[in-house]
């Protein structure tokens, strides 16, 4: 099975603040998609300990190894906004 970016509202340029679709004028969630879907031009690919919400906290999975530039399977983004 291949891994793909989802064609849903969270990856769409038409998603405005407050999870409102600027095309349809309704509140949506990431389980929605439509024929007006327009993929965001660029997704951030800056994944490492520094951009992890768990970095230098008590719930870091690898506190002895965590350092800028490193990445583990427990990474969680600091800002999960669309």
Describe the structure.
- The chain is mostly loops and 82 residues long.
- Helices cover 0% and strands 5% of the residues.
- The chain has no helices and 2 strands.
- The chain has strands spanning 15-16, 20-21.
- It is elongated.
- The model has no long low-confidence stretch (mean pLDDT 85).
What does the secondary structure layout of this molecule look like, with pairings?
Layout: E1 15-16, E2 20-21
Antiparallel strand pairs: 1-2
Protein name: DUF1540 domain-containing protein
Count of folded domains:
2
Structural class comes to little secondary structure
Spatially, the strands of the biggest sheet line up as 1-2
Query: How much of the sequence is in beta strands?
Result: under 5%
Shape: elongated
The overall pLDDT, averaged over residues, is 85
- The stretches of 5 or more residues where confidence is low (pLDDT under 50) are none
Radius of gyration over C-alpha positions, nearest whole angstrom: 16 Å
N-C termini distance: 26 Å
Q: Biggest β-sheet: count, sense, barrel?
A: 2 strands, antiparallel
User: Roughly how much helix do the residues carry, as a percent range?
Assistant: under 10%
Labels describing this entry:
82 residues, little secondary structure, 2 domains, two-stranded antiparallel ribbon, 5% strand, DUF1540 domain-containing protein
Summed up:
With 82 residues, the chain is low in regular secondary structure.
């Amino acid at each position: 099975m291949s891994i793909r970016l989802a064609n849903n509202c969270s990856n769409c340029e038409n998603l405005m603040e407050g999870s409102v679709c600027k095309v349809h004028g309704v509140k949506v969630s990431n389980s929605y998609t439509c024929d007006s879907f327009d993929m965001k031009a660029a997704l951030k690919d800056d994944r490492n300990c520094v951009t992890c919400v768990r970095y230098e906290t008590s719930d870091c999975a690898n506190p002895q190894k965590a350092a800028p530039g490193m990445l583990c399977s427990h990474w969680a983004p600091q800002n999960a906004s669309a």
